[in-house]
Amino acid sequence: MHSFPSPRRTPRRRPDHRPPHGVVSALLAVGVAVVAAGCVPQSGVRDDGAAPTLSAPTSAEPLWPGFTPPTVPSASEPPGFKRYLPLDKVRVPPRGLAALSAKTLLEHDPNVPEVVQQVIAGCPAGDCPLRAAVPRDVTGDGHSELVVAVDLPKFERTLLQVYAASGRTARPVLIYWGALGITGETFGRDLLISGTGEDGRITTRFRWNGDVMAAVTPEDATDSPREPADGRTTPRPAPSTDTRTTP
């Protein structure tokens, strides 16, 4: 009896899922390129998502929406300076104001407080707070005005006044109360009054405006006066010209 040899079984080969070597190399190259591309800054238009919500700008909210302000009448012209009261009891001599003494002018000046007039009324000649009167043309009319000053240590003030003549009538064109010991000088026809106070040395500049000597602002000053010791030139408001001045 013949036996037939059994057929030889060939072992099965498991499927190889590995990609070919060329494919792997290609994938690695693509991955390197993608990584490199991710490191390069992007250029051009980019979508960053939804835009933030915009809020409306803040608007004014009136406190009284129904209120109508009253109408302020506009002046037809700016108010001018009123003149000081004249010295009715003093007549200017033909020689002008220089012939009058400072004491005579101040004692008969209705603009000067009585307490000041009492101080200078009985002062002795050697110990009088009155300074010597100085004639200077500060109005430009060709005639000298008279600058007088009286020191009042009791009030810690110095009163400086400038008198001008209109015919036979004298009247002040400047009444200035300053710190005790103020000094003055003329710069052209401008009058500079300097004094030392709590704020240091301050100079006030006055100029004739046709009625009185008014304080000059830096915008009005076309010339530069000699600066004081600390270099400060500060304008002050012009004193009231229609009321009686007091220390």
Q: How would you portray this structure in words?
A:
This protein is α+β, with helices and mostly antiparallel strands and 247 residues long. It has a domain of 129 residues. The chain has three helices and nine strands; from the N terminus they run αβααββββββββ. A five-stranded antiparallel β-sheet has the order 1-5-4-3-2. The longest helix has 19 residues. It is elongated, with a radius of gyration of 48 Å. The C terminus is likely disordered.
Topology overview:
Layout: H1 21-39, E1 87-91, H2 102-107, H3 114-121, E2 134-136, E3 145-152, E4 157-166, E5 169-179, E6 183-187, E7 190-197, E8 200-208, E9 213-215
Antiparallel strand pairs: 1-5, 2-3, 3-4, 4-5, 6-7, 7-8, 8-9
Please summarize the sheet with the most strands.
5 strands, antiparallel
Instruction: Provide the residue-averaged pLDDT.
Output: 75
Query: How much strand?
Result: 25-35%
Distance between the termini: 162 Å
- The percent of residues in helical segments reads 10-25%
Order of helices and strands: HEHHEEEEEEEE
- Uncertain residue segments: 75-79, 224-247
Rounded radius of gyration (Å): 48 Å
Query: Tell me, what's the shape?
Result: elongated
Count every beta strand, where a strand is a DSSP E run of 2 or more residues: 9
Number of helices: 3
| Class based on secondary structure composition and strand pairing | alpha+beta
Strand order, largest beta sheet:
1-5-4-3-2
